[in-house]
Amino acid sequence: MISTRLSSFVARASLTFSRSISSAASGDVVVKEEHPYVYHLKLNRDKKMNTFTMDMWKEFKNAIDGLAENPKCRSIVISGEGRAFCAGIDIAGGMMEIVNIIQDDSIEFGRKGRKVRNMIGTIQDCFTALEKCPKPIIAAVHSYCIGAGIDLITACDIRVASQDAVFSIKEVDVGLAADIGTLNRIQKVVGNDSWTRELAFTARDFGVDEALKFGLISRIYANPKDTVNAALDLAKTISEKSPIAVQGTKETLNYARNHPTDQSLDFIKTWNMSQLLSTDLMNSAMAIMNKKKATFEPISGTMFNTGKFVGRTALITGASRGIGKEIALKLAKDGANIVIAAKTATAHPKLPGTIYTAAEEIEKAGGKALPCIVDVRDETSVKKAVEDAVKKFGGIDILINNASAISLTNTEDTEMKRYDLMHSINTRGTYLMTKTCLPYLKQGKNPHVLNISPPLLMEPRWFSNHVAYTMAKYGMSMCVLGHHEEFKPYGIAVNALWPLTAIWTAAMEMLSNKEGEAGSRKPEIMADAAYAILSKNSKDFTGQFLIDQDVLRAEGVTDFDRYACVPGHELMPDFFIPGKYDAHFGFGKKSSSKKNHEKAVIKEEITQVLESVKSILNAEIVKSVGTVYTFELTGENPRRITVDLKNGTGAIFEGASDKATVTMTMADSDFAPLFQGKLKPSAAFMAKKLKISGDLSAALKLENVLKKMNSKL
């Protein structure tokens, strides 16, 4: 997930998100950058022959999802450490959760079935992530590749193996049909139905020669080391190609495998419609002409128009012009169905554009459009628009609450009619539209709600000059706070997006008397940021307050001049954005207000850690550790904190202790991440972020101590 400076700051400063300490990674999956743009993922449970547990499945998926979004990753190699590539599932660690559900007589039969189904779905998602990852993935197989190992490699793009590799679809021998992907993918991989049925029915072993003959693997190497090295060389070759072209090729091959030829031709047409305009094409052509090697900008695959929104329906309020229309056009280029929900059936004398002119542009861009006259304040009007959308397109997958009313007037000058208008459109309209779409979002494909609203910074300056407007906009953001948690069980993402700078639209032009364009950006930056957000997995990417530039930076975008109305001109920060930003689109010198807030955020994080740890201390932890740690924190919040894991049932308190076995010195900003599993003590020590004095052997226990604590939180 993107963790922007501002969104994380906002969430804690407003004291609305309580953060628990997350469990640290187990080390069963290790990821390393082997060459520029080439990453190597190792299964690292040699003692158990790299068999999967539930925790390992989750860790594996998180690693793949991270590489999918990492703009510096262009190709991936997966191998197994030690005696085997993967010998399947660890029965004790990978099946017991399901067995426990089945054997629990307190759970009604139907509910048992649903729980088991959901758990199997979670495991399936682990290997489906390999297909969804836009980067090519090469499996380097050695020794045993059994059961879940076959599930894994059939979801990869390329498979190579060492001479000692042995394969088996083993599930029938343990009384199961293979349910994690092998039966669904292997026939498409090898194309021989009789052979795959023989393997699945008999669970017999087969070697590399047979695997090569029938197309399960493409090459054989003498030993495991040569196999991994060959896979890395192949990945390096792929990484030197245009990432847009390579990832487009993978997306198209995957789509073509599951769709008729005419549909897949439409898919590549949609893809190349935007990619023919990319700088990669020009770079490649110039490199060929000059007989040089082409270089390409590192950028995440989520930024490309890939057809991932084909057939999905997005309802966008206020989409007849401005930011709403730009987001609609961006999604339309990907083949999305767009419901244009707005009041503008006829053109405004000063604001060009109607729902009908917007619909024409959307159709030309490659999408399907449904213009709906909607007053978001009126329940009947909203229900009709939603019903019309479902009738025409079959459902709703995305809701973008963009409609908004603005009046930058102080209290004396704000008429109650204007106050009511802003609150009924901004807050009530957002809530009503979300409530009405909810039944269909529950059934949607990767469902998202995106509110165009600001981070909740409770600073007087955002209220003092236009309290009515701020309250109305913050009402939209408060919907994010509540709805993201409420809708999480349904897998519906709810996020907020806000621009870093002023965005130049027709409305902005009218409000500013045509002044300020030079210091503004084009609405395309918000459209690109929204596209990236809506491309994320809705089950994981939710509850965030996001800033357009931070989103795009995380996707590898470095050239922000292309979004400027006048490149190089100093930009105007938008409302609700703290600190000063310079003309190069980065944070300038921090204001004292921002410094104070960041200091408050760190202090609050430390307080939350103290409370969380205090709640789980017990005699069992104390008995297993037997050490007293004192932390010397430096920085904006200098303080001493002692964690007593030697006496009684344990304690954590402010101040030093003369009984401390170990003293650890670190920045105050690193204290909370250390306990949240985001910063490992060993890594912090190697990076010189952590200074240790005292009993070094006791200090080395800290990593395991934190892991034990995290498992109980």
From TrEMBL:
Compartment annotation: Mitochondrion; Peroxisome
A GO term, aspect molecular function: isomerase activity
Pathway: Lipid metabolism; fatty acid beta-oxidation
Family per record: Belongs to the short-chain dehydrogenases/reductases (SDR) family. Belongs to the enoyl-CoA hydratase/isomerase family.
Every SCP2 domain range: 608-707
InterPro entries cross-referenced by the UniProt entry: ClpP/crotonase-like_dom_sf, Enoyl-CoA_hydra/iso, Enoyl-CoA_hydra_C, HSDL2, NAD(P)-bd_dom_sf, SCP2_sterol-bd_dom, SCP2_sterol-bd_dom_sf, SDR_fam
Catalytic activity: (3E,5Z)-octadienoyl-CoA = (2E,4E)-octadienoyl-CoA; (3E,5Z,8Z,11Z,14Z)-eicosapentaenoyl-CoA = (2E,4E,8Z,11Z,14Z)-eicosapentaenoyl-CoA
Main location: mitochondrion
Key words, A-Z: Acetylation, Fatty acid metabolism, Isomerase, Lipid metabolism, Mitochondrion, NADP, Oxidoreductase, Peroxisome
Function field: Isomerization of 3-trans,5-cis-dienoyl-CoA to 2-trans,4-trans-dienoyl-CoA.
Record bears the keyword Oxidoreductase: yes
Gene Ontology BP annotations: fatty acid metabolic process
GO annotations of cellular component type: mitochondrion; peroxisome
UniProt organism field: Caenorhabditis bovis
Protein name per UniProt: Delta(3,5)-Delta(2,4)-dienoyl-CoA isomerase, mitochondrial
